[in-house]
Amino acid sequence: MTNKSLFIGVAAFIAIIFIAAVGVYQSKLPATVESNKLPALERTNAPTKGGSNAKVTIVEFFDPACGTCSQFYPLVNNLVKKYQGKVKVVMRYAPLHQGSQDVVKMLEAAHMQGQFWPAVELLFANQQRWVEHHVSNPTQALAGIKTLKLDHEKLDSDWQSSQVAKVVAQDIQDGQTLNVRATPQFFVNGKPLVVFGYQELVELIEEAVAQAY
């Protein structure tokens, strides 16, 4: 067997193992959220975008250091725009990467100044500057956020406050209750995205819109 053939064989084997692992992970997510766990989808004052009276709610648990979250961000925005007034997205923190817990605290502090969306967009657009080998660098992330029009002293005070720590702790606890083990994890009107993929998310939203309207 040549080195090239060996490499292809190993790569194929790794791909099969990866697909199998994803299948195991996905199979652990139920088709619907148990009624006693539904409150875990909601948190007062979580960052929200879309129609205030929308009958379809996308809840996304995300990590700002997650590359897939960054890739899905504009796609989800486009879906909210497509169903203008009918769909909204609610963002919940799931800091699964090393160092991300401080970064989501910084995002929540920016949210307190009405700057969550510019801050998260900036972090997604510049991930390569503050994430290395899947590890977050909070100092670099904070430097990026501070390029926005914010009260820097208040930002520094807020992100290290017990109030913000409590918010992030609730999101982490709610994520655990809902069995969130990877990001992004989407829920549409209480139904989790069991098989991950953009088309699968579109179909879940289409179904929810058809039922709601």
Automatic annotation (TrEMBL):
Record-linked InterPro entries: Thioredoxin-like_fold (IPR012336), Thioredoxin-like_sf (IPR036249), Thioredoxin_domain (IPR013766)
Xref: Gene3D superfamilies: Glutaredoxin
One function term, GO molecular function aspect: oxidoreductase activity
Sorted UniProt keywords: Disulfide bond, Membrane, Oxidoreductase, Redox-active center, Signal, Transmembrane, Transmembrane helix
Organism, as annotated: Colwellia ponticola
Oxidoreductase keyword on record: yes
TM ranges: 6-25
Organism lineage: Bacteria, Pseudomonadati, Pseudomonadota, Gammaproteobacteria, Alteromonadales
Name recorded for this polypeptide: Thioredoxin
Residue ranges constituting the Thioredoxin domain according to the UniProt record: 27-210
Family: Belongs to the thioredoxin family. DsbA subfamily.
